[in-house]
Amino acid sequence: MDKKEQLTIIVKDLCDYALDREDVKWITDNVPEFAGLSIDKLEYELQLLKIVTVGWSISYYLQDDPVKDKVVEPFWQNIYEVSGNLSQATSLFIGKEIDYFKILKCRLDDYVLAMSRIKDDNPVSAIGPEFAKHFGGPDDLFSFMAGSKMFMAALGGVKQYLQAAGFRVS
User: Fold this and answer.
1) Cβ–Cβ contacts within 10 Å for residue 147, how many?
2) pLDDT tens-digit readout, 118-167
3) By the number of CB atoms within 10 A of the CB, which of 42, 63, 69, 103 ranks highest?
4) Torsion angle, alpha carbons of 33, 152, 133, 63, to 10
5) Where are the domains of the chain?
6) Is 141 helix (H, G, I), strand (E, B) or coil?
7) Residues 98, 34: contact at Cβ < 8 Å?
8) CA distance 125 to 41
9) Closest by alpha carbon to 47, among 86, 91, 74?
10) String of DSSP letters for 10-31
11) Ramachandran area for residue 168 (φ above 0: left; ψ -120 to 50: alpha; else beta)
C-alpha cells in the first residue's frame, strides 16, 4: 500500500471515529437521573464536541509532521460533506434551515478560544467549563464532567490511533 492510500485509510478511520456514537452513549448512559439533564441535548452536544475534538487533535498531534495537512484537510472535507447531508435531512424534518458544519465551526472556535485563555498547558481545564456553558450552564458540574470526559476520550483515542498508525506523537 502506498503512502497516499494509507493516508486515505487514516482519514476515513478518523472520520468514522469522530462520528461514532458509542462513547457518547456510554457517557450519557452514566449520567445520574438526579442530574436533571436533557439526555437528547447532551448527546447532541457531546457529538459536536467529539467531532471538534478529533479534528483539533489531529492538528495538535501532527503539528510538526509534514503530512498534517494531508490528514487534516480531507478530514474536515469529509465532515463538511456529512454535515451537509445531515443539515439537509434535519432541515426537511424540522422545517427550517440548519447548517451543521457552521455549528461545528462555531463550537471549534469557542473551544480553541477557551483553550487560548487558560494559563496552564492542560486543555481539559478549558473544555469542561466551555462545554458546560454551551449545555447546562457554567456552574453545571454534570455537564462540565461529561464534556471533560468526552474531550479526554476523543483526545486519547486520536493519540492512540495515530501512534498505532506509525506517527510519533507525545
Assistant:
1) 29
2) 887 888 889 999 999 987 777 888 999 999 999 999 999 999 999 999 99
3) 42
4) -160
5) 3-164
6) helix
7) no
8) 22
9) 86
10) HHHHHHHHHH--HHHHHHHHTS
11) beta
